[in-house]
């Protein structure tokens, strides 16, 4: 099993590595740094009260490393420029194997095309690998297959069934080289 690489908190990330973006765990204060505005670019949703944000934050924090939300903070502005999440599913099959599910990847429109999305996804995958996952899966729309291919994923065409409450069709991508 891979060894889990620690994800820095905001305090640790600020230690200054000269990078334009600091990738770290989401923190409560991120509600004031444009985190929800960023997620709104992924899926329009009504604004959250601080109380609702805190309640969800605490719920997720209780899951520890099995539910990681990463953000990339712009070192110059302090705003959240990208985010992504990975959930670790614990199975009975595959000798009680674990599977990582990548979700809610988004880069601020003004920061796209600079490799930030790929950095976030690779960090999420690394986390899943570090927690012993034998594969990582995700769903995305057809136009994103090129992006996820750059992140090391390959498309899996067959055997995908989805009951979705949205009308948009989704493709299924599986990283199968593990
Ligand atoms: C599981 C999910 O969450 S699916 C939802 C994904 N999120 C969204 O659709 C929200 C809106 N879109 C975005 O936030 C961004 O465009 C993202 C996250 C898809 C990509 O983020 P970016 O930071 O712009 O991508 P990044 O610059 O890291 O691109 C890495 C590579 O993928 C390529 N790439 C990026 N987007 C695409 C695309 N749509 N199609 C093909 N290739 C792409 C880039 O050209 C780059 O290739 P290169 O290394 O040869 O230059």
TrEMBL record:
<protein>
    <recommendedName>
        <fullName>glucosamine-phosphate N-acetyltransferase</fullName>
        <ecNumber>2.3.1.4</ecNumber>
    </recommendedName>
</protein>
<dbReference type="InterPro" id="IPR000182">
    <property type="entry name" value="GNAT_dom"/>
</dbReference>
<feature type="domain" description="N-acetyltransferase">
    <location>
        <begin position="21"/>
        <end position="177"/>
    </location>
</feature>
<comment type="subunit">
    <text>Homodimer.</text>
</comment>
<keyword id="KW-0256">Endoplasmic reticulum</keyword>
<keyword id="KW-0808">Transferase</keyword>
<dbReference type="GO" id="GO:0048364">
    <property type="term" value="P:root development"/>
</dbReference>
<keyword id="KW-0472">Membrane</keyword>
<keyword id="KW-0012">Acyltransferase</keyword>
<dbReference type="InterPro" id="IPR016181">
    <property type="entry name" value="Acyl_CoA_acyltransferase"/>
</dbReference>
<dbReference type="GO" id="GO:0005789">
    <property type="term" value="C:endoplasmic reticulum membrane"/>
</dbReference>
<dbReference type="GO" id="GO:0006048">
    <property type="term" value="P:UDP-N-acetylglucosamine biosynthetic process"/>
</dbReference>
<comment type="pathway">
    <text>Nucleotide-sugar biosynthesis; UDP-N-acetyl-alpha-D-glucosamine biosynthesis; N-acetyl-alpha-D-glucosamine 1-phosphate from alpha-D-glucosamine 6-phosphate (route I): step 1/2.</text>
</comment>
<dbReference type="GO" id="GO:0006045">
    <property type="term" value="P:N-acetylglucosamine biosynthetic process"/>
</dbReference>
<comment type="similarity">
    <text>Belongs to the acetyltransferase family. GNA1 subfamily.</text>
</comment>
<dbReference type="InterPro" id="IPR039143">
    <property type="entry name" value="GNPNAT1-like"/>
</dbReference>
<dbReference type="Pfam" id="PF00583">
    <property type="entry name" value="Acetyltransf_1"/>
</dbReference>
<dbReference type="GO" id="GO:0004343">
    <property type="term" value="F:glucosamine 6-phosphate N-acetyltransferase activity"/>
</dbReference>
